[in-house]
Amino acid sequence: MILSWPFDSRAHACEIALQLDEGLSYEEWSKMGIGLQKLEGSAMWWLGDWLNYGELAYGEKYKDALEKTDYAYDTLRTAKYTAKGFAMDRRRSNLPWTFHHEVLSLDKAEQDQVLDLAETEKLSQAKLRTEVQLYGNQATRSSTGKNYEGMTVAQIAALPVKELTTENAHLHLWTTNGFLRESFEVIEAWGFEYKSCLVWVKPQLGIGNYWRVSHEFLLFGLKGECPFRDHSLKSWMELDRGEHSVKPEPIREAIELVSPAPYLELFGRKTVDHWTVWGNEIQRQLFVAEEQLK
Fold first, then answer.
1. Pairing assessment for the beta strands 263-266 and 275-278 based on DSSP bridges
2. Are 128 and 115 a contacting pair, CB within 8 Å?
3. Distance between CA atoms of 143 and 35, rounded to whole angstroms?
4. Which of 11, 19, 63, 160 is 20 to 30 Å from 243 at the Cα level?
């Protein structure tokens, strides 16, 4: 693809200035801004390709030329490795260079999945970072991808919870340190307002990039006017962890004390009396039960 110059004869560029003719319409001026952004990203691709060519062709000698450019080391490093990480046929001309750099920590398949999502959902860079967090850092997340198929934050937020719940309802949303900020976006998307939280304290030592995480959050959201029925319960419980992602039953019992029925659980892993439970493992259990009845 040949990059088109974003300016017509009514804009004149040189090394130190961009001079615009008088009388430009807003649309013309705005289009030039988009063109400038693309040029900025293109310059990073060009710089990275130039660096990788020099290293391959001239070995260590190429570093002598770098000193003459007066670029900051971080700029050279990010341009070089982003260009090396994306072959030219994998680069998306309709996505900024910065998007490609953001997904660089993922494997190639995951990079393509996140960039596909960025294209179809028109994600902002902040939203893109959220998706990268879901796909990446699996060690800190206890390798969730090895236990079940994940969903992006955007997909979770798009679930029809607002339509499934009544005008007056409670929401109890499990989350972890890694997704704490994004959880408030989900609460809002589902039509609730955050009010408080319960902390599940795990006596076993956890994992983490900073503190050894040994807790999870149960965020409480309110929709409309729905009384909190029991004010005697404290805001934390120390309970042993069970199988991967399985939540302690005493917390379910506490939810039943503070929130009125009927109850709906999303992403549940087993059927529960007096609850409607939705999840892919529930489907498998029902099929097994049907086979046993035959």
1. parallel
2. no
3. 41
4. 160
Determine contact, residues 31/6, Cβ cutoff 8 Å. Answer: yes
How large a percentage of the chain has pLDDT more than 70? 83
> Would you mind telling me the total number of residues written for the chain in this entry?
294
Closest CA to 29 of 39, 37, 20: 20
This prediction's pTM: 0.53
User: How confident is the model over 169-226, as pLDDT tens digits?
Assistant: 999 999 988 788 889 999 999 999 999 999 999 887 666 667 878 899 999 999 999 9
Domains contained in the chain, CATH given: 1-85 (no CATH), 168-258 (3.40.50.150), 261-294 (no CATH)
| Count of H-run helices and E-run strands, the chain | 11, 8
Which residues, in sequence order, are bridge partners of residue 18? 13
C-alpha count within 13 angstroms, C-beta hemisphere, residue 52: 17
Phi-psi region of 21 (alpha: psi -120 to 50; beta: other; left: phi over 0): beta
Distance CA 81, CA 63 (A): 15
**Distance in angstroms (rounded) separating the CA atoms of residues 84 and 54:** 12
Q: Per the structure block, which two tokens stand in for 85? A: 């990480």
Question: What gap in Å lies between CA 169 and CA 225, rounded to an integer?
Answer: 7
Instruction: Report residue 83 as tokens.
Output: 């260009």
Question: Per-residue b/e over 115-133, b at no fewer than 16 CB within 10 Å?
Answer: bebbeeeebeeebbebbbb
Residue 262 preceded by cis peptide, ω within 30 = yes
- Other beta carbons within 10 angstroms of residue 286's beta carbon come to 11
The predicted structure's pLDDT at residue 150: 67
SS3 of 26, please?
helix
